[in-house]
Amino acid sequence: MTSDEDWLAPLRAKFANRLPGEIEALRAAWARRDRETIIERAHKLAGLAGMVGAPEVGETALQLEESARSGADYAGQLSQLIAAIERARG
């Protein structure tokens, strides 16, 4: 591993460990129709995913955030984000 990978390895592990909780939190927010929580979690996930090199999660989270902020129907993006998170978990 390079020094960058050495530095990122613990962050990647921490990110991966939080993903199951993110899925649960997103599903719970959806069940409550809590758009603000979905926006907040998607925003955080987009930033974290970008830092640790999880581009699919980051891009999908950003799309969800933008859709939810715009007031559009975001159910499809939420499903895509959950699927991306599940793939990132391996």
Structural features, described:
The structure is a single chain. With 90 residues, the protein is mainly alpha-helical. It has one domain: Four Helix Bundle (Hemerythrin (Met), subunit A), CATH 1.20.120.160. 88% of the residues lie in helices and 0% in strands. The protein has helices at 3-32, 35-52, 55-70, 75-89. The mean pLDDT is 92.
Q: State the order of secondary-structure elements, H for helix, E for strand.
A: HHHH
* Estimated helix fraction: over 70%
Largest sheet: none
Derived structural class = mainly alpha
Indicate the overall shape.
elongated
Q: Could you tell me the mean pLDDT?
A: 92
| Percent of sequence in beta strands | under 5%
The domain tally reads: 1
> Strand tally, please?
0
Distance N to C terminus: 21 Å
CATH fold-level assignment: Four Helix Bundle (Hemerythrin (Met), subunit A)
Please state the second-level CATH architecture.
Answer: Up-down Bundle
**In terms of per-residue confidence, which ranges show pLDDT below 50 for 5 or more consecutive residues?**
none
| Total of DSSP H or I helical runs spanning 4+ residues | 4
**What is the C-level CATH assignment?**
Mainly Alpha
| CATH superfamily annotation | HPT domain
